[in-house]
Amino acid sequence: MYKKDVILENQKNESNQMFLIKGVYLEITSKCNGFCPYCHNNSKLNGADIPLKNIKNIIDSIDFMPPEAVLTLSGGEPTLHPDFVKIVRYSLDKGNGKIRVITNGSLIDRLDIYELLSYCEVQLTIETLNSKLHDKYRGEGTFALFSKIKSRTSLYSGNGKISLRVNISERNANELSNIIEQASKWGVDIIRFAFLQNKGRAIDDECLIDHYSTPDKAQLIINQLENLKKNQNPTYPVFDLEECYPRDGCELMFKDLIPISPCIDAFGNVYPCNKFMFPDYVIGNVKKQNIKDILYGGIFNAFLLRLQKRYAYMEECQGCVWKNVCFKGCPAVSHMRYSSLDRISGDCDYLKSVFKTMAKK
After folding, report:
1. Cis-peptide, bond into residue 76, ω within 30° of zero
2. Sheet holding 257-260: strands in order across?
3. Cα(82)–Cα(86) distance, integer angstroms
4. pTM assigned to the model
């Protein structure tokens, strides 16, 4: 258990609950110079920036985060924010958790920020080992960055890491083992695999693979990745497969100490997490309130009560033999697929297979 000084307990909301901050996902800009075919934000070159003053206020207000928590700076493309360097330096100086920068890398050379980034985790995304196709989506010259970013950041005294995200699709599904091997040669520390969310531009992405629309293919890929992880070469990056699996419920359903990772968009709107970024689920705005007040405010409390009602009264689940061990799937996925919290997430077949396997053990 974390020390009390990193748990939000200076106030109690109407449900008398406390929160444990796992991290904060901060989209400092909605502008982007890439055109990923599955972007959940539908980001473009024109967009909004959170003013530096507001960002400093956000960073100041999350001084309760434990050292293990992560402040993620994202976008859009975060390096397009006019005060990106100041934001990273201020975040590092405050020391509120670890810093992760999610970037396409297109402006790292131009800004000459290798030393600054050496103190952060830098997450890049690879589309495919086809460099021309990768650069088409992520920006000219970004594929070449993979081979040099580790060596460049290692020249400085920071203890940051390089992570590589692979958004699994038909563009790269046949390359996964080769991507892992190449990532090892590039000196990547962590490799994260994920299936795409079917929202934003991904709705029209014909290369989409997920448990809902292509369940058999998704399961074959998981089996392949699990086998690769089990027999992992010691020189390979650390595998992270968490986002490959459908969730059987929501952490916000925890009764006593609720783990949360709020998300803030480029307009200052706050959401319960980065999966719940829908207009109906804005719980506050950092330009008007601080994070603590938002988390202990009436809107978020009403949202938590709504999740509890969803779990207790889901009619679709009443005849299911697994209803007492299942938490009805991820509510954000339910909203994404059906525009309703009162539906199961659509991942029942997968979850039932997991429960059956667990029962046999």
Report:
1. yes
2. 7-8, 18-21, 257-260
3. 9
4. 0.91
